[in-house]
Amino acid sequence: MAPFRFKATRLNWQVGDSIRLVRADDSAKLYELVGRKPGGYNFKAKDGEERFLSDDEISLRRARGNGELEHYPVTEKGISLELHRNLTRAFSIHPPAIQLVAEIKAAYCRRVNELLEKEVHIDECFRRAAAEVHAESEEEWRKEFLRLKSMKEALARQRALLPDGMRKESNVGESYAKPVKPSTVETWYRLWVHCDEDIRALVPLFENRGDHRPKKLVLYATMMHHIEEFYFKPEQATLAAVYRNMCDDKDFKKLKETISYTAFNNFLKRTYSSFLIAAKRQGLTRAKLRHDVYQRLRHDTKAMEEIEVDHCLIDVIVVDERSGRILGRPWLTVAICRGTRMVVGCHLSFEVPSWASLQRCLAHAFWPKNLEGLGLNNPWPCEGIPKKVITDNGKEFKSRSMRQAELALGFTVVNLPGRSPWLKGIVERFFGTMQMQVLSFVEGKTFGDTKKRDDYNSTKKARIKLSELKSKLLRWIVDDYHVRFHEGLRGFPIHEWQKRMPEDGIDAVPRFESIREFLGAAHLKPIGKKGVALYGHYYFHPDLKQIRRDRGPKQRYEIRSDPYDIGAIELLTPDGQWLRVWSDRPELTVGVSMHQSEVHDRLAKKLAPKGEAVTDAYRLEALERAQAESAEIMDDGKGKTTVRNVARYHHDNGVFMTPVSGQSGGRAANDDAPVVPGAIGEAVAEEVAATTDCKPEAVVRAANERGAKATKAASDETVSAEEFAAYQAQRKAAMRRAS
Is the model's pTM score more than 0.85? Predict the structure, then answer.
């Protein structure tokens, strides 16, 4: 008797299920169940390989229990993986045209439900729904498809730039506005009901169209090579150009493979993230700005606890006080309190962003402000030393002078990462508000952008003077910005300053006479045989001899100097005291700024014959010539070009925005009185003579004659227009004779 043969148990597997099968060479492969045949199932791999497994073979492989065959059900409802993926995603993630197609299908399905409630036969429901819904909504659907198509016409120009063979008209879903068969409605309805009447089940799976079989590995390598070699470059070539270049490549033609532009674009998006593409093409900083998400910070700090400092180039061109010569755009340096939004200090001048302009801004912020005679209606109570100074990575913010000021006054400098203006958004926002509210109606504004400026001639229409701009800014800050309701602060800045005052108060600054020691330009210099060498000059004091004997000639000492007056320096002696040391050539240094000294040195080197040392005589000649030439340029009221560099040399850029308490001889921001460069008072002359071999009368006479010679016309406020024009002609004739 033949042995009884048992049949293997038939497993209830669904179409779309997947199995992982270990083959004879111990390699594993995934197969998808595509159908049932008598005695087993048909499976198909993604590479197109088909395989039949009988029920007996399936049972045997599963019984071994060594992972030879693993089964992965498709979904709980027996639907495909693609449809299951649609049911787990939000409906709004799909494009508008795809959403409209799903809504059209849902309209047919809902009509079938309505007819079933009226006890209409199921087949009749499908027939009537197909006819009635289309007749009622065809015109509306076509209008909606036309609207969506018109929205894509904006991309027509971009598609027109693509090479031939890449252009693809978008008619997604328009065929669904045509009549449908009852059998089609039945298919939609059964799927819709099976998925609990979820409209996402009706979303068309257009992405599954086409040939999704894996390509040759060499084809993927070729696409990656062209993307990384030509697309990931700072020149930012278009993807269409890279695709054309790849198609024309000889090695690509040898593959005898064709790939569409859409497939090339999809490969790029699947292989590389948007952030990586932007980082490769535009740089890491631009990619972070475009893709990263930043959390807003709360600035609920006390008054003067944190201040932000930055520079801004004013978007308006100013003219000279007397001649009306077009000068250019000045720089504004601002320090603003984070917690109260109060402007604690500012400085406006032609000095470029440097320690010189930063020093004046910090001094104006730290010391009390004297507003007498300025015609302001509100106080400016900001003063004292902050806890933190928030800055960017500018050279002046990381300079030795800034570090020494930090140690001397006890605040902390926080240098933010480079190219991150949003980290100090309060001062950046202040600049935008100031440009809008103060300069919107000022003639000669530059708009900050050539596209916005268009044909507007800023230099021709410039009318405002620097003193007028200072007064305008000062009045706006004190009488408008500080007392106006601030949306971000939800209050008034001046009220918040009083409310957020620390319980123990704000640290006060020393007397103003010590500004050079605390905020002066810092240097580390030895004492030489002729004194301290700095800025190409020598500074002498009788006490330097004993200090050099005690410490030796190689010992270096802390030096501080005023960026706008290098006539004297402060030297920190070994016993911790500051010693004021004057220049032994006051006629070349007193009242001269660091920038003016650099100009004099460059000009003196040109005046000295080649191979000959630059002497004080050449420096004095360079000083007089520079002052005369700058005065001539400033007096030329008919000049049509900006002369900001000349204004930086000629103007007194060290004038504070407002006088500060303790400042001797301070000038107000709206003071139009001309500055006589190089003028020295009798008290200063006596102090210089006490430590040098110069006589007081000689010091005063040399410096004052030099200043008066350069600004003879500017020193007379009552001169008439005819006299001023005659003076200009006389000066030009004298300069021609001298040359």
Answer: no
